[in-house]
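DM from R.C. (forwarded with permission)

"hey, sorry to bug you on a friday — could you get me a structure for this? deadline for the figure draft is monday and I only need the backbone to look sensible"
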Amino acid sequence: MSATARKSAPLPDDIRDMKGGTPIVSLTAYTTPMAEMMDAHCDFVLVGDSLGMVLHGLPSTLGVTMDMMIMHGRAVGRGVKSAMMVVDMPFGSYEESPAQAFRNAARIMAETGAAAVKLEGGVHMAETIAFLVARGVPVMAHIGLTPQSINTLGGYKVQGRGDAGAALMADARAVAEAGAFSVVLEKVPATLADEITAAIPIPTIGIGASAGCDGQILVVDDMLGLFTRFKAKFVKRYAELASDGEAAIAAYAADVRARSFPAAEHVFGDADPKSNA
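My reply, with the result:
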């Protein structure tokens, strides 16, 4: 399903049907202009709770709220036409009970226009995933490194090495059986990611996993070099916009202090007060 061939955004079932085919392309998006830039190139865009760190300066995703996700979801929704939009459910919005998860997922979808929500967790979240799917809420699952659980995982560590691989495989099978239409595998050893991809009937979306996954996702600010607080091993920088932007700001500041900006072409004359030229 190429971006150029589509006339409308795919639905969750379309993403599910891409299992084993052309790799699924995805990035995170948080603003309308960024969503517009990636719309023609991505199969789906994720309004990720990573916005708390890359846009709001939070130390983790734990402080992100429903209102923040909805605000950014609305912004991204204005910028996508060809790509499907998925919105993260923030920490504390779904863990208490399936009923709580449904209320908040329904609010996200109603107020943003998202086609699906994403939530973190494997076996222990299978009941909630099934509850949501049965009530018309498509769910993208997320297993492996789950950033909302860093305090119990002991930090941003690779998940599923050694004997822990069996538990991660069980998580993948559980979310697939519960009705998730796809699953993000984050920071999982490549061999295990390939085994999971072969074992389950829904697409795997890798981030720090394997090129053998059914698709890939990155945080757009990481990929563009806008977020520079740290760089994960799995990030490939396709640009260095932070350094380019700082250089541009420094040049602007120098021009202002030298009174070389604004120049004549940037100011208005008084010959015709009705003209904007």
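R.C.: lifesaver. The chain has a mean pLDDT of 94.
me: no worries. The CA atoms of residues 26 and 127 lie 27 Å apart.
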